[in-house]
Structure formats: C-alpha cells, structure tokens
Amino acid sequence: MSKSPVRIAIVNDYEIVVAGTAAVLAPFEDRVRVVELDSSLPVKADVDVVLYDSFGQAQGSDVDAAALMAGGDARLVIFSWNIDPDLVDAAFDAGAVGYIAKGVAAHELVALIEAVHRGERVHPSAGQHLDGEEFGRWPGQDHGLSPREAEVLALICQGLSNQEITERAFLGLNTVKTYIRTLYRKIGVDSRTRALLWGIDHGFRPDRSRRPGPHA
C-alpha cells in the first residue's frame, strides 16, 4: 500500500509568493499535497506540515507559532532565504521544528518536508544543498527585483523604517540602504514615497486571504 502524501499549508502575506511555492511543489503531488494557501491567517485545514514562507514576515523569535497553528497538531517549518544561525535558533525556540533554506532544489524541499513529517528536526546546516537558483515567485520579479530587493520594498510598503527593516530582515543597515538604492534604480523612482506608491500599484501591499489548495 502506498503511503499518503504529506498534507501541507503554505503561509505568507503575499498571494504571489504562496502561489509560486505551490506551483513548485505541484509536480510532487504524490508526495506532498497542498491543501491550504493562507495569507497571514491561522491555519484551519487538517494538515501535517505548515510551511511558513518568511518573505516580508516576522522571523525568528517574532514568529507566533501558537497563533499561526491555531492549536492544531501540524509541524511548523520556516522557509527562508535568511539562515543566520541566531535567527534559526530563535525560530526553533519559537516553536518551529524545521528550517529550510530557499536555495534548495524542489525535490530536496519535498524530501525535507517528508523528514519533518516523520518527526525529524530539520536544520539548514544539516545537509541542505543550495543550488543558487531563485525559488518560486515574489512581487516585482517581472521588473527585475531580486528576492531581497523585493522583500525590502515589501517592508517599506508595510511602513517600516530602515532600522525596523534591519531588525525584521536581519540585515545590516548599510546592506538595507544598498538594496534600497538598487531597487529604486530598477523601478525608476527617486524617493521613498514614490517607491511606496509604485509598490502599492505592483502587488506589494500584503494580502489577507485564505483559499483552498488544489487538493483541498
């Protein structure tokens, strides 16, 4: 008898990010089945694993696992570009049981989700092989923004100051300023206000929605 696929919910504030990750997992539906796609809402579906995409989201100790899981028994996995050891440790302390770097290939992501479902603790330093490819989808991708540039713009659109962005994204202040300069150039603006307006017009305002996955 073949084993049932791992049921997962994908959680992020941005619908394009959630949909992009779901699309990457779609070819592996015999192993992982996306049953809920959430935009920053507690998971309601009966799932085995919650994949929390950290793009533009709270990270580390700021992840409210209890509220996110709504009292369910699912296992929480953080999916992030940022694998700073202190951030990873803080996420585990906050209730995560897995932390996966976004640089992994799709087939490895599936294998790591299965490992979490089996009860293993998945750490980004434990055999995760980064292929260097940009994973999934994010706002501004079609306009040439890198994932990190897009995340900085997303946080600007959430009203965060540069200092607050450094704390949310675990980046140095000079690094944040560099991303701001490069994203301004790419989207053709010369001020924070114009960047904010551009972002609102191009999908950088956080969504608040829940919709069933393709296998709900």
Automatic annotation (TrEMBL):
<dbReference type="GO" id="GO:0003677">
    <property type="term" value="F:DNA binding"/>
</dbReference>
<feature type="modified residue" description="4-aspartylphosphate">
    <location>
        <position position="53"/>
    </location>
</feature>
<dbReference type="Pfam" id="PF00196">
    <property type="entry name" value="GerE"/>
</dbReference>
<dbReference type="InterPro" id="IPR001789">
    <property type="entry name" value="Sig_transdc_resp-reg_receiver"/>
</dbReference>
<dbReference type="InterPro" id="IPR000792">
    <property type="entry name" value="Tscrpt_reg_LuxR_C"/>
</dbReference>
<keyword id="KW-0597">Phosphoprotein</keyword>
<dbReference type="InterPro" id="IPR039420">
    <property type="entry name" value="WalR-like"/>
</dbReference>
<protein>
    <submittedName>
        <fullName>Transcriptional regulatory protein LiaR</fullName>
    </submittedName>
</protein>
<dbReference type="GO" id="GO:0006355">
    <property type="term" value="P:regulation of DNA-templated transcription"/>
</dbReference>
<feature type="domain" description="HTH luxR-type">
    <location>
        <begin position="138"/>
        <end position="203"/>
    </location>
</feature>
<feature type="domain" description="Response regulatory">
    <location>
        <begin position="7"/>
        <end position="117"/>
    </location>
</feature>
<dbReference type="InterPro" id="IPR011006">
    <property type="entry name" value="CheY-like_superfamily"/>
</dbReference>
<keyword id="KW-0238">DNA-binding</keyword>
<dbReference type="InterPro" id="IPR016032">
    <property type="entry name" value="Sig_transdc_resp-reg_C-effctor"/>
</dbReference>
<dbReference type="GO" id="GO:0000160">
    <property type="term" value="P:phosphorelay signal transduction system"/>
</dbReference>
